Amino acid sequence: MNDAMGTHGRDDRREAMPEELTVPEDEHLHAMLTRLKLTAIRERLDTLLDEAAGKGLSFRQTLYHLCRTEVEHKDARRTVMGMSIAHFPCVRDLENFDYGARTSVDRRQMEELSAGRWIAGGENLLFLGPPGVGKTHLAIALGRKAIERGYTTLFTNAVSLLTQLVRAQGEGKLEERLAWYAKPKLLIVDELGYLPLESGAGHLFFQLVSRRYERGSMLITSNRAVGEWGMVFDDAVVATAILDRLLHHSIVVTIRGESYRLREKRRSGMIRNDTSDTTTETAKGNPAGI
Ligand code: ADP
Ligand code: MG
Hints:
- The chain is of the alpha/beta class.
- It contains 15 helices and six strands.
- The chain is globular and about 70 Å long.
């Protein structure tokens, strides 16, 4: 640092500076760090300054070192909070996903999706395919990556989401509930189509999709091709309206392959079966079927 007062004596320097700068009492410094919410710096101040001195860092480098410590701490805390409010049913990661021969899931595509550009752009992502092929696993894994990248995320099951909306409507609180589901940057809706939905659920889902349209991403997993969503919602018109918005900016990944659970069982000799079909179909925009 440029020492403009280098030629002055100690007492002169004192006069030239506000009194509090000349007395860096720990208590005072800690109070300011608390007020600025720089808690990681506050907690590790002595160690951090010792490290900086030990490495002979300049003031600028020291400041960088302190700020980085604080930012890393805040990011880690935000990730922990984000994971807890996302309500994932379990922990699944891309690193544990087995891209072996019997799945059509493409590693490169998943890594690309984990970068989160589709979320930044408000695109939707659909994982379609039969049970056990890893749709929920991938949805959780991508949701976790999204949180690490700072996107607020909420995981919900389709039936519970729609039950909540139907109930809220009955209680005159639909607006509130829709706003709640519209808030996270990424909303994951798992298992659409597995169980029959209540009547009127399609209209509510349509309202949610409209509310999030071009604002926040949805990641939906379903065992039904989009062409069958009329049946899922028991209303072809509403299904078309939902898909119209959902697929406008979307990535559709159709997963083909054998159920991972069955494969594991077969491997362990519990069952014998040898069916496989390993193609991936990825469509941008509006895939065939609606
Ligand atoms: P789906 O949602 O398509 O029905 P899941 O994601 O629930 O399937 O997968 C069923 C189980 O098998 C989960 O425990 C999941 O972690 C595991 N699984 C599925 N596919 C894979 C895979 N390719 N690699 C590792 N685990 C997998
Ligand atoms: Mg699933």
